[in-house]
Design a protein that fits this description.
The complex is a heterodimer of chains A (401) and B (102). Chain A has 401 residues and is mainly α. In chain A, 73% of the residues lie in helices and 0% in strands. With 102 residues, chain B is mainly alpha-helical. Chain B has one domain. Classes of the chains: A mainly alpha (401), B mainly alpha (102). Chains A and B meet through helix 6, helix 7 and helix 10 of A and helix 1 and helix 2 of B.
């Protein structure tokens, strides 16, 4: 049944969400050696698991912010419910595939990108393919913050800036306050601080991000008639989503951890703690206010901010630039894959056969990217290596001789 | 569109202000705690001129106080997350935090 495919693929997305976002919480702690790599991902995984179980707020309305496939209370629109809801299931499936492909691609390149945007992008793409441009909620009705522009794009642009400002301020304050204190003292002290703030981020991430997949799966269940209440989530859905995101987190996403921890700023413990505290506070306040926030954007903004706030710190703006480019194209790229997947399935009859084919395509893409990644693997052993390779002049000399 | 932008600006402003207080303020308090502990320890914990600084117990006390405040703030933050997860919220009407329905 298509429903089974949707659930499996949704959990796969949750898994990729897990390893993509480990870096947001733990990259700076791993880079400063406040935590060893294995302990860091274990801690983060555990906290994500706990956090995921804590998120009881109605997750159904998450997708309602961007696409009009649901009524106001979260139940699917009636015209999509024919055939056991297969039209809606196909849109969800195609959207999820778009999201996973983008997540894997950015993981392969080692670029932190927003899993939330990938999910929204994929869904928007498949919705446009299946239902047309008008089925997307671009700006709500203007009376409150809603829609793709209000809830996704504008926060995406503004949140890293806010996080950066907070982190820069925090870093600057810290360095002014501990002037003269011995380096060993500050480093050890702030490493402890980092453990605390990184743990907070992991907890916040669990409560925030697992919800999205729970919402998608519950929507699929309602669409196919297996669940009726839009106010609660079946416990087994919560459990498997929690386990999926926690195990993904534990797997680590080392390529991304390396970029965020070593590639942007050469981080030391005081910066790390300031960055993590900034991330945690911005994520918590924003989600309290109802924004569909990207933990990735916030974490990256914070790390950049901590680099700016410390006098004399190196910030690799070129790497940051590449990241921002990847962010900007996330929504459309995931959308294009999502739309493409929908069309392929539709051309093949729109039923179970089409669904199976696009899932097989996903599997092929995933295996391909995994194999490619093994050429230059990043793992706990080399995640903290120096970012820049040694100068080529030494190699040239030996060759000319 | 303009309406959205102004609503957005108001919300972002809140995030910035609270973010600064918690996200920059707490680390600063933590840093103060570290500095106080270093002052309290004496010896080589701080850069100094000739001679070795003596330990100052007051420094240690202040340091511990700073860390205690940070820990309490973080605990409140965690409580806040847990409570929101259950659809309730924290109320401070009795000075100390109580859990009430939203």
């Amino acid at each position: 049944m298509i429903l089974v495919l949707v659930i499996v693929v949704a959990l796969a997305f949750d898994f990729t969400n897990g390893f993509h976002d480990t870096a947001n919480a733990m990259a700076s702690s791993i880079a400063t050696r406040a935590l060893t790599p294995k302990v860091a991902v274990a801690l983060s995984g555990l906290l994500n698991l706990v956090g995921a179980f804590l998120s009881v707020e109605v997750a159904l309305t998450v997708t309602n912010a961007v696409v009009k496939i649901q009524n106001k209370d979260g139940t699917p629109k009636p015209d999509l419910l024919t055939d056991g809801g297969s039209a809606l299931l196909l849109i969800i499936l195609a959207g999820l595939i778009g999201a996973i492909v983008w997540n894997l691609l950015t993981w392969l390149i080692g670029l932190p990108s927003s899993s939330s945007h990938a999910l929204f992008g994929g869904l928007i793409g498949s919705t446009i393919a299946g239902l047309g441009w008008s089925a997307v909620n671009w700006n709500g009705d203007g009376s409150k913050i809603d829609g793709v522009i209000g809830k996704v794009i504008l926060p995406a642009v503004l949140s890293p800036v806010v996080a950066g400002v907070v982190a820069a301020t925090g870093t600057w304050l810290i360095y002014r306050i501990v002037v003269g204190v011995a380096a060993q003292y500050t480093d050890d002290g702030f490493r402890w601080g980092q453990i605390g703030s990184a743990s907070l981020i992991s907890l916040a991430h669990g409560t925030n991000d697992a919800q999205k997949t729970m919402g998608v799966i519950t929507l699929a269940l309602i669409a196919s008639g297996h669940w009726t209440s839009p106010d609660s989530i079946p416990f087994w859905v919560k459990a498997v989503c929690a386990i999926a995101i926690a195990s993904g987190t534990y797997l680590g996403g080392w390529r991304i951890i390396r970029t965020l921890g070593k590639g942007l700023v050469e981080i030391v413990p005081p910066q790390g703690m300031a960055a993590d505290s900034a991330s945690a506070s911005v994520i918590l306040v924003s989600s309290h206010l109802g924004f569909a926030l990207s933990t990735t954007h916030v974490a990256t903004g914070s790390i950049l901010g901590s680099g700016v706030g410390k006098p004399g710190a190196t910030v690799r703006w070129r790497v940051a630039g590449r990241m921002v480019t990847a962010w900007v194209i996330t929504l459309p790229s995931a959308g294009i894959v999502g739309a493409l997947m929908w069309w392929i399935a539709d051309v093949l009859g729109g039923g179970l056969f089409g669904a199976i084919v696009i899932t097989m395509l996903l599997l092929a893409a995933a295996i391909g990217m995994y194999v490619r990644s093994r050429r230059e693997p990043v793992h706990p052993g080399n995640v903290n290596d120096d970012w820049e390779k040694p100068a080529p002049s030494a190699v040239k000399q030996s060759v000319s001789v | 569109m303009r309406q959205t932008l102004s609503l957005e600006a108001q919300a972002i402003w809140k995030v910035l202000v609270v973010g600064l207080i918690l996200g920059a303020g707490l680390p600063a308090l933590f840093a103060l705690g570290i500095r106080s502990l270093a002052y309290g320890q004496g010896g080589e914990a701080e850069a100094h001129g000739a001679g070795t600084p003596t330990p100052h117990p007051l420094g240690r006390a202040i340091g511990v106080l700073c860390f205690a405040i940070v820990v309490v703030a973080v605990a409140l933050g965690i409580l806040f997350i847990v409570v929101s997860g259950f659809g309730k919220e924290l109320s401070f009407s009795n000075i100390y935090p109580t859990i009430v329905d939203k």
